[in-house]
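subagent[fold] <- orchestrator: predict structure for attached chain, return tokens only, no commentary.
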Amino acid sequence: MASTKPFFTAVKDRRTYYGLSAECPIPDARIREIVEYAILHVPSAFNSQTTRAVVLLGDEHRKMWDVTAEVYQQQLPAHKFESANKRFQGFRKGYGTILFYEDTDVIREFQAKFKTYEDKFPSWSDQTSGMHQYTIWTALEAEGLGVNLQHYNPLIDVRLETEFNVPPTWSMKAQMVFGTPTEGPAVPDDKKEFKPVEDRMKVYGAK
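subagent[fold] -> orchestrator:
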């Protein structure tokens, strides 16, 4: 069941897909396994393990985007909401959404425990959240899913806390939407641009 795609091939193949359907090539148990594996094994500063995730599938995924649309309809003028709602309905067509959070109680606990690095823990928390997001994104695409990452927080935070019983000490970072791709990646392979590696990397002491 698990993907056998080589690691760097999976890294290269990870792209952003907006055209998604509610079909899913893998069972829900495999999605849960991928997220659990990332939660257990992706590193965090001082092994603080601050990342939290809420996995929404099927009807729960669709409810999440319905709630998001309701919240934004109350906040935006009609002409701006119409454009935003087209995006929400596109995300709703997918199979699932993973909500990424960081536990602020744990962050404060480590700030108190390690005063020398007190100001660093919020940044380190964002770094581990990003690593979790990237790991799960790459793993889902290796299984044949398309993925995109959204950031509609903080407007939706309170409603989602209520709808999905999320502790108020969990701070939302991102919403990861996935499903079976119905079109190519947002940027086609032949259009993807790369800045020169030599401008972005330095190596010293190589043999």
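orchestrator: received. Logging for downstream: The first helix runs from residue 7 to 13. Strands lie at 20-21, 51-57, 96-103, 146-150, 170-181.
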